[in-house]
Structure formats: C-alpha cells, structure tokens
Amino acid sequence: MSNIYSYDSILQFSKFTDYALRTLMHLAVADEHMLTTRQIADIHWAFYNHLAKVTQWLVRDG
Fold first, then answer.
1. Domain map of the chain by residue range?
2. Per-residue confidence at 20, pLDDT binned at 50, 70, 90?
C-alpha cells in the first residue's frame, strides 16, 4: 500500500502560480499597510520583473 504522504504525491506549482499565491497571501493579511510589488519580491528573493508580470495578471485577469 502506498503512503499518501510520499514525495510522489506532493503538489508542485509553477513559479508563476507560486508567486501569485504568495502575493495574494500578502494582500490577504495586509490591513492598512499594503506592500509594493518590489517589497514582496524582496521578501521572497524573487525577481521584481517576474513578480510584476504576476501582479499585472492578477489585476487584469485575477
């Protein structure tokens, strides 16, 4: 019988999806203090250009 917690069953996201989820989590917990895209990129050691594309997509299609 297979262990449901094995590494084979781990859900993997693309970087785009990962960045989108991280951005949404920051926005969800932000009360009055919003973070800029650059600040979120710095927190997660992500490239600003990549995160900018994600945030633009979230604004347009999210």
1. 12-61
2. very high
